[in-house]
């Protein structure tokens, strides 16, 4: 690690635990300001609602950004049945409400099982995917809905962690490009009552997990040198990934 031109030069990956209410770009801006790093980016956007693991790539670490983004992810989430929203999560406006039937575990497991392995998922309108060069979320803000190309995704594993109707806590291990909001919405539709995501936490990305994550508050208020000491070097990242 050294300084040149008023900023720290360091190569590697910093694992961060993102709080709710903050965008991934907010985390990058905070790290750039408080750690005084020159070159920095992030891997795999987390919605403001979501918390958990966010990988920041520093210096030459930005060259492996796409590689790290392509790895599988693991999430813990909460699905609320009975209401569908414009964003497929609790941040959006309710567009339809339906009564939640008396659902037993077997019926819920059957609905979850429909979304395992390989399948196509239609991205939500509120997403960064572009249509004719314009991000879908900008079109959604204008009240527009356009046809979206379904994406091929994969769910490696899922688990119903707790049922307390109308809410269901779940775990899902999925491929790159998977929308957990849409997963929650689609399961709600499969159960015949609609649903939306109320909580989401990313706990793993590839071989990275929260055991080595730095809270954003530590970046803002801690010792910058101590935080930078937690950056995984590129050889460390390679060993961790088994490359």
What does this structure look like?
This protein is α+β, with helices and mostly antiparallel strands and 243 residues long. It has two domains: 2-70 and 206-241, Pseudouridine synthase (2-Layer Sandwich); 75-202, Pseudouridine synthase, CATH 3.30.2350. The chain is built from eight helices and 16 strands. It has helices spanning 24-35, 65-69, 105-113, 136-141, 180-190, 216-221, 224-228, 234-241; strands spanning 2-4, 7-9, 12-18, 40-43, 51-58, 73-81, 83-85, 94-97, 117-121, 130-131, 134-135, 151-164, 167-174, 195-205, 208-209, 214-215. Strands 3, 4, 5, 6, 9, 12, 13, 14, 15 and 16 form a ten-stranded mixed sheet that branches. A two-stranded antiparallel sheet has the order 1-2. Strand 1 and strand 2 (7-9) form a beta hairpin. The model has no long low-confidence stretch (mean pLDDT 90).
Helix count from the secondary structure assignment: 8
Number of beta strands: 16
Give the low-pLDDT segments: none
**Gross geometry:** elongated
CATH C-level class of the largest domain: Alpha Beta
The major beta sheet can be summarized as: 10 strands, mixed
Percent of residues in helices: 25-40%
CATH topology category name of the largest domain: Pseudouridine synthase
CATH architecture of the largest domain: 2-Layer Sandwich
In quaternary terms, these chains amount to: single chain
Structural class: alpha+beta
Instruction: Give the N-terminus to C-terminus distance in angstroms.
Output: 24 Å
Q: Give the strand content.
A: 35-45%
């Amino acid at each position: 690690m050294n300084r040149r031109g008023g900023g720290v030069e360091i190569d590697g990956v910093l694992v961060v635990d993102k709080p709710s209410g903050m965008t991934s770009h907010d985390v990058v801006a905070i790290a750039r300001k408080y750690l005084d790093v020159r070159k920095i980016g992030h891997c795999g956007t987390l919605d403001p609602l979501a918390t958990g693991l966010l990988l920041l790539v520093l210096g030459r670490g930005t060259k492996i950004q796409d590689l790290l983004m392509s790895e599988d992810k693991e999430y813990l989430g909460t699905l609320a049945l009975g209401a569908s929203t414009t964003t497929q999560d609790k941040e959006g406006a309710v567009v339809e409400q339906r009564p939640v039937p008396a659902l037993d575990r077997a019926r819920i497991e059957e609905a979850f099982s429909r979304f395992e392995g390989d399948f196509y998922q239609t991205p939500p309108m509120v997403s960064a995917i572009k249509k004719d060069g314009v991000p879908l979320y900008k079109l959604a803000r204008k009240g527009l809905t356009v046809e979206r190309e379904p994406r091929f995704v994969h769910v490696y594993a899922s688990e119903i962690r707790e049922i307390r109707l109308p809410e269901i806590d779940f775990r899902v291990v999925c491929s790159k490009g998977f929308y957990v909001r849409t997963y929650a919405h689609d399961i709600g539709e499969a159960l015949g009552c609609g649903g939306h995501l109320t909580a989401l936490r990313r706990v793993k990305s590839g071989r990275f997990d929260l055991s080595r994550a730095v809270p954003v508050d530590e970046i803002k208020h801690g010792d910058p040198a101590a935080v930078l000491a937690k950056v995984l070097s590129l050889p460390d990242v390679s060993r961790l990934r088994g490359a």
